[in-house]
Amino acid sequence: DGKAVARRLSALLPFSGPDVDALFSSVHATVKGAILGSAATGAVQSALCILMLFILGVPGPFVWGTFAFVLSFIPVFGTAPVTARATIYLFATGHPVSGIVMGAAGVLIGLSDNVVRPWVQGSQDHMHPLIALLAVFGGLEVFGFAGVFIGPVVAACALWALDVYGRSKLAGSDLQSRA
């Protein structure tokens, strides 16, 4: 029913056909970017987690790395339970230096979300990575978990509206200068 809803919505919106097409295209690219950004973030975080677990000798690095991939989709927590567990394990088994390294790696693995997600998402919808990052954080704050997807869509709609408004102001100033 997506195409039928899009046609109905297109008929209801008070904008020109090309502007509505640009809006729908922008929202589609933003949603696609949010999904790809989440998947890429999960892949990067789980790969880094597996690498560190393997290097530091934590048992079952692939199992825990797969679990980290699943957890990476949960905002706020992310991969922290896996890296914290590995850090505690290393300290408990008498490897304090490895525990410190794993703790530092856990922080870096968690922060990789702030780089990978906006970069991948911005590459899909031509949104600046900083705007994408702010949209994700703002969406999380306002909408909770769904804000990972809703925030960037709202940002894409706002950027589209600014673009349409800017073009209409330019067209209006061109008409005034000709008069």
Keywords:
179 residues, mainly alpha, single chain
Explain this structure to me?
The protein is an all-alpha fold. Helix content is 84%, strand content 0%. It is built from 8 helices and no strands. Helix 2 (17-55) packs antiparallel against helix 5 (96-111), helix 2 packs antiparallel against helix 8 and helix 7 crosses helix 8 (147-178). The model has no long low-confidence stretch (mean pLDDT 85).
Low-confidence stretches: none
Mean pLDDT: 85
- Terminus-to-terminus distance: 47 Å
Shape: elongated
Give me the secondary-structure category. Answer: mainly alpha
Strand content: under 5%
Total strand count, please? 0
- Residues in helices, as a percent range: over 70%
What is the radius of gyration computed over CA atoms, rounded to a whole number of angstroms?
Answer: 22 Å
- Tally of alpha and pi helices: 8
N-to-C series of helices and strands:
HHHHHHHH
Q: How would a textbook summarize the main sheet? A: none
Secondary structure layout:
Layout lengths: L1 H11 L4 H39 L5 H11 L8 H13 L3 H16 L1 H13 L3 H15 L3 H32 L1
Give a short overview.
The chain has helices spanning 2-12, 17-55, 61-71, 80-92, 96-111, 113-125, 129-143, 147-178. By secondary structure, it is mainly alpha-helical.
